[in-house]
Design brief:
Blueprint (H helix, E strand, L loop, with lengths): L18 E2 L24 E2 L6 H14 L3 H15 E2 L23 E2 L1 H6 L2 H20 L4 H4 L3
Helix pairs in contact: 1-2, 1-4, 2-4
Length: 151
Amino acid sequence: VGADENCVLEVKDLEPNEMYIFAVAAYSSNGKLIGDSIGETTKPILAYPPLSTATARAYLIQCAFQTESYMLSKKAFQPLWDYFVSAPCSPVADAEIVSISSSLIISQYRLIPDAVHHASPNLLYLFLRSIFIISDICVSDRALFSDSVSF
């Protein structure tokens, strides 16, 4: 690669959870090492497996929240919620509904067992953390259900 060009190097097929050290060397057009040595080596770098879409979305929710981009957090949260939680089905006859008024209906959301079973502990932690983040945003927006109840 010529000196005036940008060089990007992509390293493929690394083993996850293995440490790697990188260094750069420059060679002349006739193959002679320039500077008589390679450059400084990096500190050891741990190779991570690629992040799942759900994990990347959970990190996006967290970063958006930390930078006060609450709308982005909310947008990123909904698909993550849909991944783990099934939509409430129609009311079941034997379901117990606790209510302070006859107009209050509590939807029965349930976790999707296969999604939970196949998720890593880290992703489950991030999902739970995302629920708290969205709840915090709703508290600041005064958008919790309890904020709409009047006595």
